[in-house]
Every structure is written in structure tokens, then in C-alpha cells.
UniProtKB/TrEMBL annotation:
It comes from Gloeobacter morelensis MG652769. This is Bifunctional nicotinamide-nucleotide adenylyltransferase/Nudix hydroxylase. One of its GO terms (molecular function) is nicotinamide-nucleotide adenylyltransferase activity. CDD domains: NMNAT_Nudix (cd02168), NUDIX_NadM_like (cd18873). Its EC number is 2.7.7.1, 3.6.1.-.
Amino acid sequence: MRKKYDYCIYIGRFQPFHLGHLQTVRIALEEASELIIVIGSHRTAPNIKNPWTSSQREQMIRLTLKDEPELLERIHFAPVRDQLYSDNLWVADIQQKVLAIAGDESAIAIIGHRKDESSYYLDSFPQWSYIETGNYRDIHSTDIRAAYLSRAPEASYYDKLPVGVQVSLSTFQSEARFAELCAEYDFIQQNKKAWSVAPYPPTFVTVDAVVVQSGHVLIVRRKSRYGSGLYALPGGFVDQDETLLEGMLRELKEETGLKVPMPVLRGSIVDSHVFDNPSRSLRGRTITHAYFIQLKAGKLPPVKGGDDADKALWMSLADLYIHEDLFFEDHFAIVLHFVSRV
Ligand code: NAD
């Protein structure tokens, strides 16, 4: 029988895919001939909010439906990157991916559940009908991740997961990345607890340096527990007795040992910008002031990791794109903000 819609669009992070998501997939396939699952936060570095890559998440969904090939063959997967500082770019990416699969003459509906303010994006596609699914058993991925990463008994969350996802989560426990994420989870919980006695939730101020020379960006590799091993911009928290500019130059010298005289560094600052997306850091509300330092073309000055960085390196812009999914917080987006202008 002909379905009401040609395509349903289902956007989500699916970290992990749970029985509430599965229920929506089933409703979507009742309503439409085909389903496009938009897997969000594609190429985000693994962290406690996004532990699994988009291909691992697609695999979880495929495993869940492996005994129902007639459903699986009606599903398309479209991984989509976050654009933390431009909802328009994010919407445009989804529009393009849907157009490429569905063409421009199909009857399309977006399906989802307006669970809270974070569901605002469901209103960004007025050209499509909307199907509200309602809430299924009050299941939340956040609770499942909390139980999983705090090593709670499986019985406390397995009843919220399809069997295929239970298997995937169990397999992932033997990977080194799982232990790192558990350590990061504990660290963030302790950090939150330490700040819980403050009279107001804290807002942290940080600074970052985006130093570019001859098609290369100065990058460090983090060694602190939070985001350990990820690439980041040199930077950190501002001290009580320094200006933002002084803090940025201090962190830059401490973390990279950059052999460029201070007056040259100061004179090479060509731009600065505040990055303030409320969800940019999992440690808590953190606003960063980034400075763009464009050095004259020539031989790259020597650098050496120090302080919170176990390594400092000049990364070519080509490598920057290749390693997008190894960048801490929004640092990849910060670099792109500046290098796309000059
Ligand atoms: P999610 O996996 O939490 O939820 C996906 C969908 O399932 C939502 O509609 C949600 O309401 C629904 N759902 C969850 N639990 C349910 C339950 N128990 N019963 C019924 N429905 C349930 O994913 P999400 O965080 O909403 O995904 C949004 C994605 O879009 C993210 O990747 C986010 O980063 C991305 N996004 C990006 C931008 C940008 O980059 N500018 C803007 C908005 C959203």
C-alpha cells in the first residue's frame, strides 16, 4: 500500500541508539516508503557526550535491524557534522543530503520528539511535514551513557537498549578508548561536585592562540585527563592577575616554547574573536577568547611541548582537515573561523 510520505527524515545523535529511537524508526517506516537517518555530530572527537563515531552508530542501528532486512533496505544513513557557530550551515548540509537522496519532488516529513529546548532544530525545516512521536518510556541516552561510563550494572540500563546495541556496548568495553572515557567521566563528575558548593554555577574564561605561518597551524597535543591525546590550540584558563592578551601569550610560550620574540608575536595579532557556544565544553560553561597570530612566511620556528601539552607541532592545513575528529572541543571550528578569512 502506498505510504503517506515518500521519505521520513530522522535526525539524532543516537549516543547510543536506544529503544525510544527504535520505536521512532518503526513509526517512520509505517508512515513513509523510505527513511533517511541523519546521524548528527559526525567527526566529533570522542568524548563522554559523543563516545561513538558515526560509523559505529550506523553499525549499531544495522545490528539492531539485522533480522529485518526488509526494513533495513528502506533506510539511508546520512552523517552530518555539527556547525556549532552556524545553524544555517548545518541546516544547509541536511537540505543538500536529503536532496541528493530524495530529489526535489518527494513528499517528505521530519520525524522526532520535542523533548526539551534542545529539540528546537525540529522547527528548522518548514518545507517538510512534521510527525511528533511522543516520548517512549522516558528513555534518555544521557542516562544510559552515565550508567555505562560509571560502570553501573548492565541490568540497570540494558532493558532500554536493543540487543544489537547491548552487544556493541559490551564489545566497546574491551577497547582502550572505553577506559579513557570512563576516566574522563569520573574527572568531570568530580569537577562538577567540587564546583557544586559555589553560590552560582561558574563561568570559566579561557584564551587560545591560533598561530599560522606558511599554511601551517601551531597545535599542541593535550596531556591533561580531560581530552587527553587530542589536538588543541595552545591556550588555557586566564590567571587572576593578567589580561586576556597576556594570558594568551603566556599559555602560548608555556605550551609550545615558540621561538619568536614577544614584540613580534604582539605585532602579528591580526584578529580576535569570542567563542561562546554554551555547549562548547563539557567541563562547564566556558567562554574562550581566541587570537589570530599570522606570522610572516618562511621557515617554521622550532616548537616544543610543555606544561599541559605533551607535544607541540606545526600542522599543515591539509592535515588539519584529515584530523578533524581528533580536535578538542570546538578548536577545529575556531581555526577554520580565522583561516577562512585571510
Ligand atoms: P538524540 O539522539 O538525543 O534524539 C534524537 C531524536 O529522538 C530527538 O527527536 C529526540 O527527541 C528523540 N528521542 C530521544 N529519546 C526519545 C524517547 N525516549 N522517545 C521518543 N523519542 C526520543 O539526538 P539529538 O541530540 O536531539 O540530535 C540532534 C543532532 O543535531 C545532534 O547531533 C546535534 O549536535 C545536531 N544539531 C546541530 C546543530 C548545529 O550544528 N548547528 C544544531 C542543532 C542540532
